[in-house]
Specification:
Blueprint lengths: L3 E4 L2 H8 L17 E7 L9 E8 L19 E3 L7 H8 L3 E13 L6 E7 L5 E11 L6 E11 L24 E3 L7 H6 L2 H6 L9 E5 L2
Length: 221
């Protein structure tokens, strides 16, 4: 999973994702329940249609939620891609094709190979921002009527990935291929339109591990 990342700047979002920059401000580094940018396709558009950049809470708010930030602090900033269609929090946005791209200059993951946590930062080798796969939702506060945007970042099993399987603290109860290490899902620029506006089957085909060559990664700082 990913719990810390650096959003791309408004200008880099405009340039790389071919959209107007988001109107609202956001911090240069965010964690769960922080506010960051995401890119979606406006409703009713075919693939290749109009994109817009919005800013919302990085922790998706379910359709039937009673409050924007759960008092139980249930982590919804990441969504397991294997259970999008069944998890109550995510199945509505997934079934409605409310898919988005999360523009990130970098993201952080913990490496425990030394026996203690060492944060590693991940950037693209080509210098472009990441377009990370996500879902978005618009929720209406039942108390105030306010519309609140939110989004979540998709993850998938990375036990077989040469780089991403090295992240996170291993569980000694399980073998190296049973850890369920997680990776973000990278959408390449050539697939942006399909991810945002294609069918669910089209989107499923894009949920895959990125090749090692795409990454530049190492200890942060």
């Amino acid at each position: 999973m990913c719990n810390q990342y650096a959003p791309a700047s408004p200008q880099r979002i405009a340039d790389h994702f071919r959209t107007m920059p988001p109107a609202d401000c956001y911090r240069p580094g965010i964690g769960p329940w922080g506010h960051g940018p995401f890119v979606r396709q406006t409703r009713g558009q075919a693939p290749g249609g109009h994109r817009e950049a919005a800013v919302g809470q990085w922790a998706l708010i379910a359709d039937n939620a009673k409050e924007a930030k759960s008092s139980a602090r249930i982590m919804t900033n990441n969504a397991r891609s294997e259970s999008l269609a069944s998890r109550p929090t995510f199945r509505g946005p997934w079934s409605r094709a409310q898919r988005c791209l999360i523009p990130a200059d970098s993201f952080l993951e913990p490496n425990w190979e030394s026996g203690k946590n060492e944060w590693w930062r991940f950037r693209r080798a080509d210098g472009h921002p990441w377009g990370l796969a996500g879902l978005w939702n618009t929720w209406t506060d039942p108390a105030s009527g306010e519309l609140i945007e939110s989004y979540t970042m998709l993850t998938m099993n990375a036990d077989a990935h040469p780089l991403m399987r090295r992240m996170h603290k291993p569980d000694p109860k399980f073998g190296p291929h049973e850890q369920d290490k997680r990776s973000v899902v990278v959408i390449e620029a050539t697939d942006f339109d399909v991810w945002l506006g294609g069918s669910i089957d089209d989107a499923k085909a894009l949920i895959r591990l990125a090749p090692v060559e795409v990454f530049v990664a190492g200890p942060d700082g």
